[in-house]
Amino acid sequence: MPYATTDDDIRLHYEEAGKGTPIVFDGLPVRSADGVIVYGLLVPLSLDNVVAGTSLGLLGYSLWLAPVMFGATTAVVAFVGLRIGRTAASFIRIRPDLLTGAALLIMAVVLGPNS
Length: 115
Known about the structure:
Layout: E1 3-5, E2 11-13, H1 42-58, H2 65-91, H3 96-111
Antiparallel strand pairs: 1-2
């Protein structure tokens, strides 16, 4: 697959399609190598929100508390994660998917056995 290299040695893989002005999408790939849509985190996060929302409902909290609280928390944590990721990427020259996988493995080892 063709790619362009940025000034800070980051490879941007691209695919040519159609006519007109080229557009660069910066973010996670939406398709895996075999063409299957990759939205793997949506299901576990959704199930987690259902369980947490059910717990709040059983405790008698307002119907509107869960969506507002979960949305705000998700937004804050996502922005913090993006900032940490960009900072780490400037210091550690490794593929982002490998860095994320290593971080998840370390978290599993540290948090898993004791919880």
